[in-house]
Specification:
Distance between the termini: 23 Å
Oligomer: single chain
Helix content: 25-40%
CATH architecture of the largest domain: 3-Layer(bba) Sandwich
Order of helices and strands: EHEEEHEEEEEHEHEHEEEEEHEH
Organism: Pseudodesulfovibrio sediminis
Radius of gyration: 19 Å
Number of helices: 7
Protein name: Thioredoxin-disulfide reductase
Keywords: Flavoprotein, Oxidoreductase
Pfam families: Pyr_redox_2
Number of strands: 17
CATH superfamily of the largest domain: FAD/NAD(P)-binding domain
Number of domains: 2
Strand content: 25-35%
Amino acid sequence: MPDTLYDVAILGSGPGGLQAAIHASRKKAKVLMLGRIDNSSLFWAHVENYCCQIMISGEEILKTGRMQAESFGAEFRDEDVLAIEPDGKLFSIKLESGDMIKAKAIILATGSSRNKLKVPGEKDLLGKGVSYCVDCDAGFYRNEVVAVAGCRSAAAGGAVALTNFASEVHLYCKELDIAKGLREQLDTTGVIVREGIQITEIKGKNAVESVLLDDGSTQSVAGVFIELGAKGVLELTAMLGVQLDENMKYIEADKKQQTNVTGVYAAGDICGPPLQMAKAVGEGCVAGIEAATYAKKLELD
């Protein structure tokens, strides 16, 4: 598939991203929304504190929002982003299917939560071999044996990336749920896929030394990368140079939801508390309008 150019690409399928898609599309921008709605924390929630709604399921809100955005012309691809980088005045985005797309503007609306493995040793060894960001920490594990935990694109893509540094990469997951192209990359890069086996404990005194697996075996490793879901705020901002707050947790954006990088906007939980749908929708509205306006005015060489 050749590169396809969009005015606005939105990463994340939660309420902030959906509202951005609705408003950007209504301004006649060519919009692509990326991600799976069941990755949104709202998908599993029941909402009782949103204006004009007594009680409604998050799943219903998200599905309705998608239909609204589609009615205005927004396109959707239910897959995650593996890489994103500046490309002149544009941005190049690599999808888990292997396809590449380009966009004039980006809206980051992926949420802020970092899913935990919730096993003994994870918390105690954080920063001592336990990491939630392959793009940030892969370089520390040159010629080492490492483990990756996760079943989705972030884990598979991270495992592939780690083969450029580590001597051996083990990917542990209950059942892989990734695109065919990404599975082919796992096979060709030599990642040891341990499907059906999961990490139950991370062991080590002052640093990670091994992982205990649910089949009773132990694997010696120097690092454990926990990648449960899609690319998070740390990975995406590291690729783009987007400024985070002093705690390296949330994206800094102005009142137009513009980040420090021209053409990159952010909305929703990724911008910090309160982590509420009402805030995400409001910021998504602003980000969608501003990103579409910027993209429509951008002159390409």
